[in-house]
Specification:
Elements: H1 5-21, H2 47-51, E1 86-89, E2 93-97, E3 102-113, E4 116-126, E5 131-135, E6 137-138, E7 144-145, E8 149-152, E9 155-157, E10 161-165, E11 171-180, E12 183-194, E13 197-206, E14 216-226, E15 230-233, E16 236-240, E17 243-249, E18 252-255, E19 263-265, E20 268-272, E21 276-286, E22 294-301, E23 306-316, E24 320-333, E25 342-355, E26 363-372, H3 376-379, E27 393-404, E28 410-421, E29 426-441, H4 453-456, E30 459-473, E31 487-502, E32 506-528, E33 533-555, E34 558-563, E35 573-589, E36 596-602, E37 608-615, E38 630-645, E39 656-671, E40 682-690, E41 695-704, E42 706-708, E43 714-718, E44 728-741, H5 754-762, E45 802-813, E46 820-835, E47 838-847, E48 852-853, E49 857-864, E50 867-874, E51 881-888, E52 897-902
Parallel strand pairs: 20-52
Antiparallel strand pairs: 1-3, 2-3, 3-4, 4-5, 4-8, 5-10, 6-7, 8-9, 10-11, 11-12, 12-13, 13-14, 14-15, 14-16, 15-18, 16-17, 19-21, 20-21, 21-22, 22-23, 23-24, 24-25, 25-26, 26-27, 27-28, 28-29, 29-30, 30-31, 31-32, 32-33, 33-35, 34-35, 35-38, 36-37, 38-39, 39-40, 40-41, 41-44, 42-43, 44-45, ...
Length: 908
């Protein structure tokens, strides 16, 4: 110890010196600043000369002494490493090494620089290389956590580690994960060239939401990625659950744009016996603008048949939206030279337009058009028309209405309508129909606005209706001949009415109606004695007739309550409420026989055999005026039954109300001016809702009080006086509709296949799937229904979603003692999800009268996570066909599919 005294003192002194002069390698204190040392400027400036204002037009001469030497300094300053504010933080520590020129951030480290943001377990900023490194942290068990998250602009990358150069803004990314337009990239090595270009190697591209174990992916060995635009790659092939498949391409292109873009629509293929192999629903999609698009689709068959479809949708927010489609098919059956060779052309035009209510509250334009060949849906072999095969009516309407505010208010509208029966091929059109009306005017109402009594409630209005009606056939549609039999007319109507209370409990109303009808089509009839037949001569020119009538009605409401509950008892049915609304009406329709003429039928001997009456208006638009005087009394009784029952919920404090009969109506009339059969048949109708309002039941019957003779003709003898009952049942009908699904008990609506049903409704079909579903599985517009996310559970408690739609109808006829069921059918449609990803559905029916199944469609669907598989099968009938599809759900890769179908064959 003594011998080392000198060495110990020297070591202590040296340590003290180091502690006094040394600097710790730690984070510098924030808020400090470096003050540069002041140096004397060699340039002297006379302050008085600078501040003293110069005389006008004087010149200032700069000498060498007054020049700034920094303006001509040849040494350029070194560019700064960071040109923006850097913000950083870390949870554990922040350390700066002067020797390494590195800043270390550890545990939940974050750094923000301009539009760049990095979050990671560890971040190292290398000032000597102008680089930033971000990586994970490893715990004592060797488990990595806190993966880096690199964000620049809208691009987000989640790698294992990243090296970023601040000068060049290039980056080297290892095992990165990123999302682009609904697709996911998992790349071993990625090189960020700039903000818009990435180069990747051995990258997996998929749309599967399971990032750890995707159902499928495409291996991009070398690829160029332009975010939000495209991916271009070399050799690539598909892997399914990690197993390579031969599905691959030497090069590929994947669009990544988030905007609507134009592109090719790949067709589906199949085979038909009479037309050969075919390609169907292929074409091109044009993204014309943000407001309108256009899809051009086509079909081609190897026997020469072809089809074309133009489909467009448009939408201008807060103004209007709509869709347009035109379908044309040139169909050839068999081959030229064979006996069964046939050629036909069919077409269909659809247009739907709807105006937003906010666009213009005083005017409105709408359109719903569905017209074309009567046999289009029966002949077309396109899969989208499956559910419309049984359509027998096509209808259209285009209307424009305008309201002129004021007192009184004036409303005007112009409408063009079209109705087409596909069975008879008859077409009825109005081109156009113009309506105008003036709102009701109360000439005797008080200034306060309240109306009491008969006089103050007197009101009238004016209505005008003008029509140009065309009746033609399918073969003459849009040809010159269809205008030959057009009927044109104008009708003026002035209704006058009043109403008031009578004896406090009765409501009495009286009205009179005046009509004046103009027509441009009249006729004249005569008898040709030479030809011995009736001759009709058409006349053109304005002609008119005027009619009027009077009616009055008296009605009241009667309430009845039947209580079953007694004190101390809690019965299930507590009370029944009966509401009756009886009414009596009286109508007078005068005879306008002055508008009727007659001609005599003369035989060869010059004798008059008979006198035939006719009206020159009988073939006009509005028909002939009434020839016979009518004075009739109408009787009507409406009933409503409700019950108050004990609620099944024991916690409920009030009874539950249910509807027994929503309506039960009886109506008949008695004609005082008739010479016979004065009573009209009694009509009975009713309806109700049962099973928690899920089933609607409607029924009706016609009861005739008169008897039939031996020739089954009605005679003026009461049926009860002919040995029968009081009424003779001539016809009856019963319909039931039942709609139920698994969501009905939870208060939610079933929205499955909503888009497909909309397509069916636009074509005039049913929205309840009873006639099948329109299915083009490759068309994303018909198959983009959202699927609910099902949270997994450790216990098996799966509920099977299901839906059921049933329609039952029966009609009875006994007008001429035939006593038969004229029609009797049961139709049903339903879907059930047997497992979380298997769905089976069917649409069919059974004709109970003819003992046979009606049009049937079977549907199978398998949810393969990122893929979907569909099968539609019509097992029998003239539309026997099937359609199979398997493809990727994502709209980006929707063209990666297998679609095959067998179209229905023509039946002659």
């Amino acid at each position: 110890m003594r011998t080392n005294k000198f060495q110990i003192l020297f070591a202590l002194s040296f340590t003290m010196f180091i502690n006094m002069c040394g600097y710790a390698q730690d984070r510098p204190k924030s808020g400090g600043e470096i003050v540069p040392a002041k140096k004397e400027d060699s340039i002297t400036v006379n302050v008085n000369d600078v501040l003293q204002p110069k005389a006008k037009n004087s010149t200032v001469e700069l000498t060498e002494k007054g020049k700034d030497s920094t303006k001509t300094d040849s040494v350029k300053p070194k560019p700064e490493f960071l040109t923006d504010i850097v913000t950083y933080k870390a949870k554990d520590y922040t350390s700066f090494s002067r020797k390494e020129q590195k800043l270390y951030l550890y545990n939940e480290a974050e750094i923000y620089y301009g539009d760049m943001e990095i979050k990671a377990g560890i971040i190292v900023i290398d000032y000597s290389k102008n680089e930033v490194y971000a990586g994970r942290v490893k715990d004592s068990a060797g488990v990595y956590s806190q993966h880096p998250v690199f964000k620049q602009g809208t691009q987000i990358v989640e790698p294992d580690s990243i090296r970023f150069n601040i000068d060049t803004e290039k980056a080297l990314i290892f095992n990165s994960r990123t999302e682009q337009a609904g697709g996911f990239f998992d790349s071993e090595i990625s090189k960020k060239e700039n903000d818009s270009v990435y180069f990747v190697r051995n990258a997996k591209y998929t749309t599967s939401e399971n990032r750890e174990d995707p159902e499928y992916y495409f291996l991009l060995r070398k690829a160029k990625v332009v975010p939000d635009e495209k991916v271009a790659t070399g050799l690539t092939n598909m892997f399914i659950y990690g197993v390579p498949t031969p599905i691959g391409l030497p090069f590929a292109y994947f669009p990544l744009t988030k905007k609507q873009t134009s592109g090719v629509i790949f067709p589906s293929f199949g085979e038909q016996n009479s037309r050969g192999y075919f390609l169907q629903n292929g074409g091109y999609y044009f993204a014309l603008s943000d407001y309108i698009d256009l899809a051009v689709l086509g079909d081609y068959y190897t026997n020469g048949s072809y089809g074309m479809r133009l489909q467009s949708k448009y939408n201008v927010r807060y103004k209007y939206n709509g869709s347009f489609s035109f379908k044309y098919e040139n169909l050839i059956t068999s081959e030229r030279g064979f006996e069964d060779y046939a050629k036909s052309t069919i077409y269909n035009l659809q247009w739907s337009h709807s105006q937003d209510t906010k666009a213009n509250p005083n005017s409105r334009f709408s359109a719903s058009v569905n017209l074309g060949s009567s046999n289009y849906y029966q002949t077309s072999v396109n899969q989208t028309n499956v559910s419309n095969f049984l359509n027998n009516t096509l209808s259209s309407s285009i209307s424009y209405s305008k309201t002129f505010q004021g007192e009184p208010q004036v409303n005007m509208s112009a409408t063009a309508t079209h109705s087409q029966n596909t069975n008879t091929e008859s077409i009825s059109m109005t081109l156009p129909s113009i309506q105008a009306s003036v709102s009701r005017i109360f000439p005797f109402a008080s200034e306060s606005g309240t109306k009491k009594g008969v006089i103050q409630n007197i009101n009238f209005q004016y209505n005008l209706s003008a029509e140009n009606q065309i009746t033609t056939t399918d073969s003459l549609f849009f040809k010159k001949e269809m205008w030959d039999d057009a009927l044109t007319g104008v009708k003026h109507t002035i209704p006058l009415s009043t109403n008031f209370k009578l004896f406090k409990y009765f409501s009495l109303s009286a009205s009179s109606n005046y009509e004046e009808k103009w027509t441009f089509n009249t006729i004249n009839k005569s008898y040709d004695t030479v030809l011995e037949k009736e001759v009709t001569t058409e006349k053109s020119g304005l002609d008119a007739f005027r009619t009027y009538n009077f009616s009055t009605s008296l009605g009241t409401t009667i309430y009845g309550m039947f209580n079953f509950e007694k004190e101390g008892e809690d019965k299930k049915i507590k009370a029944i409420r009966h509401v009756m609304r009886p009414s009596v009406s009286y109508n007078i329709n005068p005879s306008f026989d002055r508008y009727w003429d007659s001609y005599e039928v003369v035989n060869a001997d010059g004798e008059v055999e008979e006198e035939v009456e006719f009206s020159r208006f009988e073939e006009s638009l509005y028909g002939a005026p009434n020839q016979n005087f009518s004075s009739s009394l109408g009787l009507n009784l409406s009933n409503n039954f409700e019950a108050k029952v004990r609620d099944k919920d024991s916690t409920a404090t009030e009874s539950k109300k249910i509807t027994l009969l929503n309506n039960l109506n009886f109506s008949t009339s008695y004609n005082f001016a008739g010479d016979s059969l004065k009573w009209s048949p009694m009509r009975v109708s009713g309806g109700t809702q049962i099973l928690n309002d899920k089933m609607s039941v409607n029924f009706g019957a016609v009861l005739d009080p008169y008897a039939l003779d031996n020739n089954n003709r009605k005679v003026d003898v009461y049926n009860i006086n002919n040995g029968g009952s009081l009424f003779r049942l001539t016809s009856a009908n019963l319909t039931m509709n039942y709609t139920l699904n698994s969501k009905s008990f939870s208060g939610k609506e079933d929205e499955s296949r909503e888009n497909s049903r909309d397509e069916t409704l636009k074509s005039g079909g049913r929205g309840d799937d009873l006639f099948g579903v329109s299915e083009d599985f490759a068309d994303q517009r018909l198959n983009n229904n959202k699927q609910e996310d099902k949270e997994p559970s450790e216990f098996y408690n799966y509920k099977m979603p299901w839906s059921l739609r049933i329609a039952y109808a029966v009609n009875y006829s006994n007008g001429t003692r035939q006593n038969e069921i004229s029609s009797h059918s049961l139709m049903f449609s339903g879907d059930i999800e047997f497992s979380p990803r298997w769905t089976v559905g069917a649409s069919s029916g059974y004709d109970l009268l003819n003992q046979g199944f009606t049009y049937t469609q079977l549907r199978f669907e398998r949810d393969l996570l990122s893929w979907r598989m569909n099968l539609s099968w019509v097992p029998f009938s003239s539309r026997s066909s099937w359609n199979f599809f398997i493809g990727i759900k994502s709209s980006i890769l929707k063209d990666i599919k297998y679609d095959k179908q067998k179209a229905p064959d023509d039946q002659l």
